[in-house]
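pipeline/complex-builder :: batch 7 item 3
reading input block
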Amino acid sequence: MAKVIQIVEDVTVRFAGDSGDGMQLTGSQFTDTTAVVGNDLSTLPDFPAEIRAPAGSLSGVSGFQLHFSSKDIQTPGDTPDVLVAMNPAALKVNLKDLKPNATIIINSSAFDSKNLRLANYETNPLEDGSLSGYNVIPVPLTQLTMSALEDLNLSTKEKERCKNFFALGLMYWMFNRPIDITMRWIETKFKNRPELVEANKRALQAGYNYGDTTEIFTTRYEIKAAKLPKGIYRNISGNEATALGFVTASLKSGLKLFLGSYPITPASEILQELSKYKEYDVITFQAEDEISGISAAIGAAFAGALAITTTSGPGFSLKTEALGLAVMTELPLVVVDVQRSGPSTGMPTKTEQADLLQAMFGRHGEAPLVVLAAQSPADCFYMAIEASKIAIEHMTPVILLTDGYLAFGSEPLRIPKFEELPEIKVNFRTDPTNFYPYQRDENLVRPWAIPGTPGLEHRIGGLEKRNIYGNISYEPENHEEMVRVRKQKVDNVQKVIPDLVVEGEQEGELLVLSWGSTYGAIKEAIENIKSKGYKASQAHLRYINPFPKNLGDVLNRFKKILIPELNMGHLAFIIRSKFLKDVIQLNKVQGRPFKVSEIENKIIEVLGGKNGK
Amino acid sequence: MENKIDEIKTQVKYTAKDFASDVDVKWCPGCGDYSILAQTQRTSPDFGELKENIVWISGIGCSSRFPYYMGTYGFHGIHGRAAAIATGVKLVNPKLQVWIATGDGDMLSIGGNHFIHACRKNINLKIVLFNNQIYGLTKGQYSPTSEKGKITKSSPYGTVEFPFNAIKLADAAGATFIARTIDRETKHMQEMLLRASKHVGLAFIEVYQNCVIFNDGAFSHLTDKETKADNLLVLEHGKPLVFGANKDKGIKLDGLNPVVINLNDGVHSINDCWVHDEFDANPTRGFILSRFTDIPGLPTPIGVFRQFNKPTFDGDYMKQIEEVKSKKGKGTYEKLMFNNNIWEVN
């Protein structure tokens, strides 16, 4: 029977199964292939904090959502069009998120009484009519995989484990994508286990063929390549982008890159990624604890490296005291906080934006430093470079905020040419004539004089310093002067950061002001309301301390300011206190990113009947 | 370049003055720290390093003001974290000779974690522990080396906790050079500092140091003329363990038990004494020596307890970098960014 190929603009697929089912792997393979086909895409992995919760349980469901399109997209999609559910628990957990009429491919082999009971189903949803609003396609994935691998000399368990590749093959057929990229990946991944190469490849091919031959599938879909700006692209996750940004900054500055870090979800991948790059002189010090991680980085900065430390919420708190030392010694240091749900251990694998006030003020004494925030997975690359540049050129600690959503999510990055990226100027002081460790240039920046330089021997540390001379000073007036100088030095960074860009009308009824990972959802929401006849503008902050110098002006050009945040109102708090201007808040604290529709609805509510004109 | 530096190293003749900074020293009059500073400045010219390649790093406490008074590079850190800061310095520039000045509170209490891990990894750092068995800068609370039962401001009825034995701890954690000296033993301290400077690996020196204000006389039995000879045992490699005013007492190993013997009793002779071997590959004797201070009746050893060589963390790290470089070639931006899964949009 001939199958119809239907051309569609964009699709959101979610793979869901047990933590042991390899859903993250399946999702990332589908993503890689989708990237190479040239679609724009955005992903949202979602998994439990436990390594492997009990099989079949509701708490053990792991998911991977992927939005891909032939147009420019910003988010992993609100509501999946297609769900692949590997067991009853996966169906139950994900069903409420689906579009009406969504397609659900169900591994019917897993719908036995035990799994149904584990998922708290009283009746089998495949039989009780509860899925009538959906296009349900039951496929005995496990059973089909087992038959495909029947003659292979592998244990039942090992064969069963290949079912995710069967599912992936089926999806490749459905969306008309090549399977050879994943074939090659399997060959490399299992190169020491030829029997597993054979099994996984066979399962993948069997899934693909099943789509082709069986009569339940009548339609295939095609999503054309997106019209992205010219260039060479790669798919990149936020954590990977952050790591590569720092290696690039090291190449740009000619400095060794030093990372002092302690593993913590969701930041660990930056440490893991950077530990691969020894041929770039990257030194990764996996410290005994968070405090050691940042302290070693401070030592590295003193010794003349591009020094960074990476962490997440609880670890960020532990680094607080040392951050004060970095402020006092005026050394360049980048601290990456991949925010996660808190307080305390919170929900370690879930995202949140609730460390902003800690980044701004979470130190004792008057301890200002630079705070930046990345807006998308690919932007992590640019902001890591920017954070390094500011830290080095202004001799100040810089906090770079990302979050779990950016860290694990991915999107295409147009790889810039090396020359397109900003220069990073390093001025090691070498001249001993009239050298004082706290003398300052026009931006109040002190010299970087590193151990090993003859004639510049000096001592720094956490005790208050006499301005210019750098010796210890407890003089009241000097302390106040130094507090003011350190603040002014950070404020001076405003001179080199770009003005805030307003997307859309430059003045009017409503400005949506935001920071961090909410960028994409807001951008799509504003595009959507436009088509409904409303108008609102967007301004997104990547520089939070200091703010861009035109922020005050921008705020004054709009009647209403809406600030959506994944916290209880951190940016709103700062804007109110700094600009004495009231703002409207939209807050979500569920460990999940905003849906486009949530922002859209709020904008329409705020605009009332005014359409923003 | 290398040769040139070596040449300069031998040409430059420093004096103690070159290692003094212009900062006024502000320890209490009579503090044992003065001696440590003086012996360090005196021996630094013989460390075989250019002044600009020496870095002193510290945490917080009286002892930790030390870097300010040295004419080298210095970093006064935060409480307990000197070893971590020093690790960063050493890894970025392994050519630097990195010293740590620390106290019993700083390194064994808040900094305990960093201390044991620095020892475990055998990072090429030199740690000088100023042990006065009391908290000085916070004004007189007991420390992790204070003896059980000690009455202090925060233990008016006596402490109910056992102290750390720093030598035992360093040894167990993996330090490769372990020594003890006393603030009043100036020549001995100079020798220990000098030898630590030459050691490749984590060198640990515990200095018994008198706090005149809060713990005066804690070590007087080891420093007073009348009592010193009977309580102090000077360890020398290849020499028998002998002490006492007339060198009339020795230490014999009875199985694994150290016992004091009288060399004039007609029964024992110097040939019965334990002969000290600093380089003993077997850690047992070093461990027994480290326990002397825990056993009543035994003298307190000073000198080098153990020293041996094993690969250093920083050395192996640099080696690994060089190996990867020779295998993969130097990294470039193109190799970094243009990986397998790239695609082009025209």
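note: The first strand of chain B starts at residue 54 and ends at 58.
queue -> next item
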